[in-house]
Hints:
single chain; alpha/beta; CATH 2.40.50.140; Rossmann fold; seven-stranded mixed sheet; seven-stranded parallel sheet; 40% helix; 17% strand; binds adenosine-5'-diphosphate; binds magnesium ion
Amino acid sequence: MPLKIPPATQSKFTKLGIRTPFDLVLHLPLRYEDETKITRIADLVPGESAQVEGEIIHSEVMYRPRRSLVCQLQDDSGDILYLRFLNFYPSQQKQLAVGKKIRALGEPRMGFFGDEMVHPKCRVAGESVPLKQALTPVYPTTAGLPQPTLTKYIHAALNALPLDDTLPQKILQRLHLPEFAASVKLLHQPPPDIDESALLERAHPAWMRIKFDELLAQQLSMRVHYRERSRRVAPELIAHNKLTDALLKDLPFALTGAQKKVWHEISADLSRPHPMQRLLQGDVGSGKTVVAALAALQAIENGYQAAFMAPTEILAEQHHLKLREWLAPLGIEPVWLSGSLKKKDKTAASERIASGDTMLAIGTHALFQTAVEFKKLGLVIVDEQHKFGVQQRLALRGKGSEPHQLMMSATPIPRTLAMSYYADLDVSVIDELPPGRTPIVTKLVSDARREEVFERVRAACLEGRQAYWVCPLIDESEALQLQTAQETFATLTQIFPELRIGLAHGKLSSAEKAETMAAFKAGELKLLVATTVIEVGVDVPNASLMVIDHAERMGLAQLHQLRGRVGRGAAESMCVLLFQQPLSELARARLKIIFENTDGFEIAQQDLRLRGPGELLGARQSGVPMLRFADLGEDDKLLDRARDIADEMLRDFPQEAQAHLQRWMANEPDYLRT
Ligand code: ADP
Ligand code: MG
């Protein structure tokens, strides 16, 4: 099999993500050129790539409108096509000298001189040069790696590697999919009579086979991970229902049906001797925090500690306040740990965690960054899990025996995404909001009508309600973002001299942040000007108006999260999306979706269609192999089948399953273990 690749070429391959010879097999064409036939110049259609053949009857270097080599090619029909080259070598000039017979492949268009091709691909023509038998693939490539070189190595790999099928015949027939070897060969060298649009749209059966194999590999690896976890050991945290019942009794509300359902799922998981890895999904405001508190209590009543992590200090601080309030009557005092604590306080907090003096630690990622050793960690709760990297979660897992993990997310994950990238986790969904919430009215307002928005804010605040003003997101510069927030704050302070206004942004010290949030919560501040630091988790039921400045700059998930900060009390709530014109197409699409939908799942599904999985996956992206061929927006049926077949293969064809993983996941050693 050995395929000799010179180091210089290898480094180009690396740039293209080609690390093994098999990667060459899977380096599939972007499009094809048709060099299997000749088109008469008279029949050329502007914009449609074609190959012509004829004789050069004129060739000269022109200096206007730019320096270029311009040739006239005449074919048998007597028509003339101009070939134009802006950059050219002397050798090219020679190849295109008067009297030469050549074939030119390119896209014809109406040019300066008449019908022309700019930079066509030229080769010597003649009876001894046969037409190609297959469409010519055009591969994604990189500077310094010409198509012919890349093609040569790909063909060598196709010939040298064993491409035997990893799918058992029985399954292949049932699925009506072509064989793997035939499929890749067809995609690299399609016959001239093939339906080219099916190839380009990736709808050809050969494409289906590749996409299926990729999805199958992903399903297999996720299953394997899942099974492996169920062989590892974690503490059995039995549901004694002492502390948990006590909390439920004290709460000013009863759990919703959906909260009860997910709580039972989590409680059952915790009592098993294997590490739970459960994702708790619930739209903003659905009441995940109390479920997290119950889970922590089940750990604590078994003598194990719990850690509760949030991605921002504001959010962690809120959890701390809430849990302190809920747990104090039960005699449990959580310890607070964040990066901005003074060294002395941090040390004190770490010591209380290490000695087992405290059973619950709440904080930001400082919880696992600093050298915090838990005495007996039984459960890790991660809020807004998509904001954390996989590595960070694993770091916490690495401390001591393996704890259970509860991950929470308010960014709903569409079904196909959950089935693919999250297939190694168990998922619980809170699909119901607590009663008494009034729906949020969303308004789209052009920036030209800013004044009207000011009046709306004033009216709401004077009626005793509270409002958020979210400052524009400025991706390029954090400093600029801060400056904008400060300027907005100054402007609004001038406009509303009668209102007390607060300012929250990422650069405040944690004491300042906590103070501001507490004052807003207590109703002392009527208006809170904030950067997107309030995106996640802020909970002030009396706030019923949200203004999002430059909403066109924000992503869908972010807009949905921000909007979810209001509509938490009984008062009718409103979210005003201020936008600046002109809108890009993407921004327009996003605003339309957020305006028309309130259901987070629907918004997420549309987001997936709009942008692909990257955005929704957040940090998880770095932890799982991304799909290159299959498209979760379109290939949902294929995904369903891959999931069923993965189960069947692990059960009935373990060797084939292993071979399939080996073939597809060779670059992802983490995903190979079975
Ligand atoms: P999220 O799921 O967005 O984290 P929270 O846990 O912050 O939501 O809950 C939102 C608000 O709803 C909080 O004020 C919380 O105390 C309240 N809440 C939670 N569960 C219920 C319930 N079953 N009935 C009434 N209010 C509830
Ligand atoms: Mg929350």
